[in-house]
Amino acid sequence: MVLGLSRYAVGYVPGSSLALIEWNEWRSERLNGTMAKATWNGAVIAESDDTIIVEGNHYFPPDSVSMEYLIDNTAHTVCPWKGLASYYDLIVDGDVNGGAAWYYPDPSAAAAEIGGYIAFWRGVQVSG
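^ that's the sequence the OP posted. Answer follows.
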């Protein structure tokens, strides 16, 4: 169990061992006018100039995501400092990319800023 998640989290810093680091070290600024775009199988899944970058992943505001391409997935994982993640499958032109999007519906206090925001992986191209 990790205590004090509102300020500290256990994390891996490339080139070092596990360390107790401040939450602010994980955060990046918002894009502020630079458009980020998530695409898969020729479709634009999300587009926003207000993503939040955490650990190198763009988290898109829910209203910037084309939800017609997403369907609930029953998978869940736990991040020790962000909390319980839920997943979506992507479906474009009949092709399915299982668990390619994730979000934190009720994140820890340390990750409250990304609550409900959606990130992508598994072949989804994110530019911006």
